[in-house]
Amino acid sequence: MKHILVPTDFSAESHHAYEVALQLAQRTGGSVTLLHVLEAPEATTANFSTFGGPVNGSELPNSSGGMDELFTIKLMEVTKRRMHALKDEAHRLAPGVSVQDTVEVSRIGDGILAAVEKHGIDLVVMGAQGHGAMEGFFVGSNTERMIRLAPCPVLTIKHPQAQFEVRNIVFPSDFTEESAAATDGLRQVVAAFPGATVHLLHIVSDANYETGQQHMQAFAQRAGLSKVEMEVVNAASTTSGIEQYAQQVKADLVVIPTHARSGLSRFFQTSIAETVATNAFPPVLTYHLAS
To answer: CB-based contacts of 98: which residues, under 8 Å, 6+ apart?
Structure first.
């Protein structure tokens, strides 16, 4: 988690994500890259250096000069000022943390994915507004796309986190044999927050509690968890069960592994992670299982 990307549209949600990213970078000795994506008509590949203008002096795609180009230049100037203000804020909030800024001219999702690859990003921290949002970076569809496609973990933030202290981690799974593939990612999270209690959560729609407990005990032993609690919860749906339990234990973080392959358990379906990430109150960290 040393190279952290924060996509920003200068909204409150993106600022919440930025504050968390700065705290994580301080904890890990990492750095933060701020990204703003400018959506230009049919722009998919043009990239800007750190506000130095178009790469190699080229113009925007489909640019014919005149008013369109003038508008874009003005927009870049405003963006530059806003980015510099955020960097100045970092000096106060997280002294010593390196913060870079960059712009991609592209569709929003493509721009974020391009920045992940270009800057060698280990973690994307982004705001989330849920499905009720009408505009901005962080409508559900963009957040969900990052969860599905980003090659690194994605941490979604929906509310202010003045002090991102993780004491309670909720880890939902069905704890079948295939869940063993998720232990490495969970170990890394626990290593970043060594004092946290991990709440292993098994959502069931029947009363098979005993089997669930046995599976969780085996998983906890396999993952080498020391501070752990286990709970089997009966709920009508997986997502509602996760959200309600996270609220009940005052979770500071929900961790959900995902896998794009079909045929795996419901807990590894990206749709579960996407729904929880855009609806549950606490921050949600998702990561992909190894193929």
So the answer is: 25, 31, 32
